[in-house]
Amino acid sequence: MFESTELNRRNETRQKLFRIGLGTMTGILILPVVLIMSTLIYKGAPVISFEFLFTGPTKGMTAGGIFPALLGTILLVVVALLASVPLGIAAAIYLSEYASDNWFTRAINLAIINLAGVPSIVHALFGVGAFVIFFKFGTSILAASLTLAIMTLPVVIVATRESLQAVPMAFREACWNMGATRWQTIRRVVLPNAVTGILTGVILEVSRTSGETAPIMFTGAAFFLPLLPQGVLDQTMALSLHLFVVSTQVPNMPEQLPFGVALVLISMVLLMNSLSIALRMYLRGKKKW
Amino acid sequence: MQEQAGNMAIRTQKLNLWYGTFQALFDVDLDIKQGIITSMIGPSGCGKSTFLRSVNRINERLGYVRITGTIDVMGENIYDPEVELIQVRKQIGMVFQRPNPLPISIRENVLFGHHIHNAGRKTSKSEDDDIVEDALKTVLLWDKVKDKLDKKATALSLEEQQKLCIARLLPVKPGVLLMDEPCSALDPKGTEAVEELIWELRGQYTILIVTHNMAQARRASEECIFMLMGKVVEHTETGQMFVTPQHKETSDYIEGRYG
User: Fold this and answer.
1) Is the dihedral of CA B134, B139, B144, B149 positive or negative?
2) Are B103 and A171 in contact (CB < 8 Å)?
3) Are residues A89 and A145 in the same domain?
4) What is the ipTM of this complex?
5) Does B120 reach chain A within 8 Å, measured CB to CB?
6) Chain A residues within 8 Å of chain B (Cβ atoms)
7) pLDDT tens for residues B125-136?
């Protein structure tokens, strides 16, 4: 009565096959990550030192450190954030809390999605046209950061809007029914509960921004500068472009140096991502509903 | 006339309401007396919740709602263009089916309404303390939560959450409390406790309570309104409604032949 039939056995074999097959696929998926990281650490770690991080390049960039590029990347990201975060959060609050659902807001949403899909080199050309030439910022940190800001704006808007919409409607109703205005509701209830998601979005934006090369290439990042930038209207070096330069543009480059640069860049990104995950876990643990 | 209007907390005349092209309320004329508990019963979709939600103008949020007729609360037409919505909401508190305390501390929940209506004036801590104690004592919750006022309100049991949701309406001194099936998310013990509380509040507030539970309407209200298909069928003293209903639809519903 309970012994297995031919069909049971066939199903069992098939089930095993799929489990192994799907498992292998997953394994292949993480392979590139593991390979990239291990190669970078194996080849790049030996060149990393305090001196590498905190001095400038020497001997036609074949020796010395990466400090101007590291500082430049941080500057570019910070200025980009100053522009995109307030704008993005404000837009998301409007779209999620005030705007009614009509053709106009739907068109805005479509525009945001499309903005996210624009290739970065196109953003770069837009940046040249708009910020470098039209607004006369020249090739500068300001122009490059604003280009980055526009490129990452959709990320901030979408992340913020989603975390706003994750706040239960019942909270808003509770507030409105006590006679709170929309702004009081947003300020006292919606935003405090959405801040986790917003922060996560912002940090992810940081990690993405810091690795971008194309948008800053024509708008403000330089191959090599002997001096550190003195203000936002100066050009700067940047890690991502520096990596491109030392990998392909300079003859007689010691083999390990580009790996060192890449390792620093990817560590920055990973650090930001882990920070974002840790923050989310910490804040999620604190809230309950 | 003036005198009579004074006794009525809520008076509607020829109230019609449409959701888009669907008419949910038909010529509703109701006089709901001040200071008593009135329950509204009727099958799902009969318009009782819709009626409740038009009394504090929360229906308006849905852009496609259209209303004709008048709703007077305490003798004033709340749909008058001169009327400030914030004041309407302040005067008319609402309790929902699902307890919806805000994800902040118990104390802050009670003070929320008080603070938003006193923006600009910093209230003193002792004043706040008195308000919290008063409100929580009124809803019979003080003894249970007085030692954990700074704990998250969302950690309370559903029954306590619902009591808190009633408590937080009180500091702004509303005249009318609307309750939309306030016990349907609670277990029998919680239901009993909340009903007891509602009964306690009788006299101080005009309470209009929508319920699916006929036993509850019978136990916990003084007057009862039976609605069917968007119309008021009967509005009498609760005891009379359940003993000698005047209409066949009412008796059929009360006896459970449909609903």
Assistant:
1) negative
2) yes
3) yes
4) 0.80
5) no
6) 100, 168, 170-171, 173-181, 184, 188-189, 193, 287-289
7) 888 888 899 899
A chain contacts of residue B93, beta-carbon cutoff 8 Å: 177-178
pLDDT in tens, B142-198: 988 888 888 888 889 999 999 999 999 999 888 999 999 999 888 888 898 899 899
Does any CB of chain A come closer than 8 Å to the CB of residue B62? no
Q: Among all residues of chain B, which has the CA nearest to that of A101?
A: B63
Dist. CA A277–CA A287, nearest whole Å: 16
Considering only CB atoms, which chain B residues are within 8 Å of A171? 100, 102-103
Say which of B63, B102, B169 has its CB closest to residue A171: B102
The CATH number covering residue A148 comes to: 1.10.3720.10
CB proximity B113 to A under 8 Å: yes
Q: Residue A152 and residue A13: Cα distance in Å, rounded? A: 48
Q: Specify if A16 maps to a domain.
A: yes
Same domain, A140 and A270: yes
- Distance, in Å, from the CA atom of A196 to the CA atom of A202, rounded to the nearest integer, reads 10
Residue among A179, A287, A289 whose CB faces B116 most closely: A179
Q: Are residues A136 and A216 in the same domain?
A: yes
Cα torsion B233, B239, B245, B246: sign: negative
* Nearest neighbour of B56 by CB, restricted to A168, A177, A188: A177
* A18 and A115 part of one domain: no
Task: Check whether residue A118 and residue A41 sit in a common domain.
Answer: no
User: Is the distance from CB of A143 to CB of A131 less than 8 angstroms?
Assistant: yes
Asked if residue A1 is part of any domain, the answer here is no
Question: Does some domain include residue A250?
Answer: yes
Q: Would an 8 Å CB–CB cutoff place B207 in contact with chain A?
A: no
